[in-house]
C-alpha cells in the first residue's frame, strides 16, 4: 500500500503565487489614489459642514459668522475658529457670492446672520467635467449639496 502526502505540489504553489502577484499588480495603483468622485463628495461635505457650523454659531451667539474660502489654496476658515480647513487639492474651486463678500480675486465669504439668514451663495468643486456644488439660500440660510 502506498501512502500519499496531503500537501501541495510545487507547480500548484507557483500558480497560486502567480495569481496573487497579478491580483496585487492590478489593485495596487487603485489603492494609492482616491477616485475623483470621492474627492468631490468629500469637498462638498466639508464645505456644507463648515457652512452649517457657521450658521449655528451665528444663531446661538447672536452675532454674524463668516465662512471665508481661499480658492487658490483650497482652504476655508470660520469666524472665531483658529483652524484652517483643507479641501482636497486635486480639485479646483469657484465661488458665487455677493459682491460685498468678495475680498480678492481668490478669496470670498458667505456671511450668516443671527436670524439664520445669510448673504447666500454657491461654492463649486470641480475636476475636469465633473463638479459638485454647495448652495446657501440667502433667506433661510439653508445649506444644500447639489
Based on the structure given, which CATH architecture is correct? 3-Layer(bab) Sandwich
What structural class do the secondary elements suggest?
alpha+beta
Find the CATH topology. minor pseudopilin epsh fold
N- to C-terminal separation? 75 Å
Task: Calculate the mean pLDDT score and round it.
Answer: 87
Q: What is the 3D shape?
A: elongated
Strand content: 25-35%
| Gyration radius from CA atoms, angstroms | 25 Å
In percent, how helical is the residue content?
25-40%
Poorly predicted runs of 5 or more residues: none
Give the ordered list of helices and strands: HHEEEEEEEEE
Highest CATH level, the class:
Alpha Beta
The oligomeric state is single chain
Describe the protein's architecture and organization:
This protein is α+β, with helices and mostly antiparallel strands and 146 residues long. Strand 7 and strand 8 form a beta hairpin. It has 2 helices and 9 strands, in the order ααβββββββββ. The protein has helices spanning 10-32, 36-61; strands at 65-70, 75-78, 85-86, 92-97, 102-104, 107-112, 121-127, 130-136, 143-145. It has a single domain, classed as minor pseudopilin epsh fold, CATH 3.55.40.10. The mean pLDDT is 87. Helices cover 34% and strands 30% of the residues. It has a 5-stranded antiparallel beta sheet with strand order 3-2-1-6-5. The protein has a 4-stranded antiparallel beta sheet with strand order 4-7-8-9, covered by helices on one side.
Amino acid at each position: 500500500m502506498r501512502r500519499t502526502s496531503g500537501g501541495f505540489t510545487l507547480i500548484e504553489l507557483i500558480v497560486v503565487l502567480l495569481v496573487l502577484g497579478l491580483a496585487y499588480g492590478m489593485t495596487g495603483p487603485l489603492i494609492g489614489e482616491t477616485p475623483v468622485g470621492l474627492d468631490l463628495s468629500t469637498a462638498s461635505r466639508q464645505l456644507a459642514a463648515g457652512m452649517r457650523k457657521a450658521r449655528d454659531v451665528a444663531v446661538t451667539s447672536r452675532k454674524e459668522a463668516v465662512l471665508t474660502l481661499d480658492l487658490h489654496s483650497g482652504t476655508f476658515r470660520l469666524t472665531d475658529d483658529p483652524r484652517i480647513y483643507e479641501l482636497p487639492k486635486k480639485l479646483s474651486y469657484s465661488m458665487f457670492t455677493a459682491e460685498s463678500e468678495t475680498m480678492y480675486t481668490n478669496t470670498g465669504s458667505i456671511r450668516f446672520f443671527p436670524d439664520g439668514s445669510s448673504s447666500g451663495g454657491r461654492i463649486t468643486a470641480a475636476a475636469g467635467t465633473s463638479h459638485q456644488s454647495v448652495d446657501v439660500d440667502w433667506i433661510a440660510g439653508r445649506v444644500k449639496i447639489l
